[in-house]
């Protein structure tokens, strides 16, 4: 799920604005991405559609002109090229081969995202962001990057510290500071409202509650839902737990920045996985309509058409 912060409720349209269409003046039609038999590129195509349709990312990335180029394995160049095709090409379906190839060459030593092999869309999305950081801010470490032009860290990064607390004996772990691009939540925790793990190494060995504190105010919040099994019976509960508006105080144990505490973020996109295949729902803010992207196939969707089939994809 992808949530964005808008300057005001009119920009987002609020909940009402999500279904209020605007004019199509000078708006290029949405384009699909090819995925020929054996390519298994649906995970990358979903991540690409997310990056293109996130207005904050697309506009910021457009302004970047210099980078550390890695030639035929340069993810920055490949992303620039596909974005130019999204904007200017008259074709309704575009190839993502150049980016797929650059991704495979970049992660060849790790044997990840290799050609023809299915991979994880969330991990692909995170790694694309980290490679953009590398191309434009390689002098800064991933965990402490403060470069003003680094889109991943300025727009996506959630600066957190995590601490385990035992409700029984009161023992606490040392705070662990870290940065994440995607915040993962167990569907069981989402439905039952608890975030607990069992770590018997601390004093009494009882169930510990994980407390995560957000220390910044990200413009884009990415949430990954983690299922406890392949055959979970929580699908309907998860759907009922979803909404179109999010406050960061409902997501974390504590939020330190006043701006972050007051912020409202709106749901603009979902990458779904079903039947060993990824597809994407995304809200186009310019026309205020939901679109469905299944590789080369692009369809306009109403809210009802999105909600009803969600139990299949989530």
Automatic annotation (TrEMBL):
Query: Which PROSITE patterns is this protein grouped with?
Result: USP_3
Ranges for domain USP come to 31-314
According to the UniProt entry, where is the signal peptide? none
Any one Gene Ontology BP term: protein deubiquitination
What InterPro entries does this protein's entry cite?
Papain-like_cys_pep_sf (IPR038765), Peptidase_C19_UCH (IPR001394), Ubiquitin_hydrolase_53/54 (IPR052398), USP (IPR028889)
Alphabetized, the UniProt keywords read: Hydrolase, Ubl conjugation pathway
Query: What GO molecular function annotation could you give as one example from this UniProt entry?
Result: cysteine-type deubiquitinase activity
Gene3D superfamilies per the UniProt record, alphabetical: Cysteine proteinases
What is the recorded name of this protein? Ubiquitin specific peptidase 54b
Q: Which organism is it from?
A: Gouania willdenowi (Blunt-snouted clingfish)
Q: What is the lineage of its organism?
A: Eukaryota, Metazoa, Chordata, Craniata, Vertebrata
């Amino acid at each position: 799920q992808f949530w964005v912060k808008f300057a005001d409720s009119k920009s987002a349209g609020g909940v009402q604005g999500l279904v209020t269409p605007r004019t199509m003046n000078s708006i290029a039609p949405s384009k699909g991405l090819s995925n020929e038999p054996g390519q298994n590129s649906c995970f990358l195509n979903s991540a690409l559609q997310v990056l293109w349709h996130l207005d904050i990312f697309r506009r910021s990335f457009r302004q970047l002109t210099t980078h550390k180029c890695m030639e035929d394995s340069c993810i920055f160049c490949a992303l620039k090229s596909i974005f130019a095709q999204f904007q200017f090409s008259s074709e309704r379906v575009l190839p993502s081969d150049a980016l797929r190839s650059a991704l495979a060459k970049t992660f060849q030593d790790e044997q990840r995202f290799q050609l023809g092999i299915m991979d994880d869309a969330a991990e692909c999305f995170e790694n694309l962001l980290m490679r953009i950081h590398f191309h434009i801010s390689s002098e800064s470490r991933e965990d402490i990057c403060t470069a003003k032009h680094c889109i991943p860290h300025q727009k996506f990064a959630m600066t957190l510290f995590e601490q385990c607390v035992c409700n029984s004996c009161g023992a606490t772990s040392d705070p662990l500071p870290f940065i994440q691009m995607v915040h993962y939540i167990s569907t069981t925790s989402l439905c039952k409202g608890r975030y607990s793990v069992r770590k018997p190494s601390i004093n009494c060995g009882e169930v510990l509650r994980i407390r995560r504190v957000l220390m910044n105010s990200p413009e884009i919040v990415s949430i990954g839902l983690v299922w406890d099994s392949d055959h979970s019976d929580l699908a309907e509960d998860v759907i009922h737990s979803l909404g179109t508006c999010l406050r960061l105080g409902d997501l974390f144990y504590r939020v330190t920045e006043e701006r972050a505490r007051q912020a409202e973020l709106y749901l603009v996109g979902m990458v779904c996985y079903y039947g060993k295949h990824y597809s994407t729902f995304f809200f186009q803010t310019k026309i205020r309509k939901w679109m469905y992207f299944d590789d080369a196939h692009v369809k306009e969707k109403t809210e009802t058409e999105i909600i009803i089939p969600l139990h299949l994809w989530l």
